[in-house]
Design brief:
It contains 2 helices and 6 strands; from the N terminus they run βαββαβββ. By secondary structure, it is α+β, with helices and mostly antiparallel strands. The strands form 2 sheets. A 4-stranded antiparallel β-sheet has the order 2-3-1-6, with helices on one face. A two-stranded antiparallel ribbon has the order 4-5.
Length: 111
């Protein structure tokens, strides 16, 4: 299969990184839209970005996301096993960054 001319990047980012990610991607000339979503593990609000761009701009878009979306440590409370009372124990969890999927686009039209 030859290299695609266009790509669709699907990026899941934290809601608080949405504005910075959008501006950074627009700066590299990517067309995008976003869908509100929620994480399955922590149930936190996310945004799923649908990013259309020429294949040669893939690395620029990934660099922009890397700069705009940062990882954070948050604390999640879990009940202690074997405890007679459900006393929460804060557990550090790394959240954030971006999860990106790159899909080749066979056909692209702007109408």
């Amino acid at each position: 299969m030859e290299n695609p001319v266009h790509l669709l990047l699907v990026a899941v980012v934290q809601d608080q990184d949405l504005e910075a990610a959008t501006k950074a991607l627009q700066g590299v000339g990517a067309s995008l839209t976003y869908l509100s979503s929620a994480g399955g593990f922590l149930g936190r609000r996310n945004a799923t970005l649908l990013i259309g761009l020429p294949a040669e701009k893939e690395q620029q878009a990934l660099d922009a996301l890397h700069t705009a979306c940062r990882q954070r440590i948050e604390y999640m409370t879990l009940p202690l096993e074997g405890s007679p009372m459900p006393m929460p124990a804060p557990v550090p969890v790394t959240v954030g960054g971006a999860t990106v999927f790159a899909l080749p686009v066979e056909r692209f039209e702007q109408i």
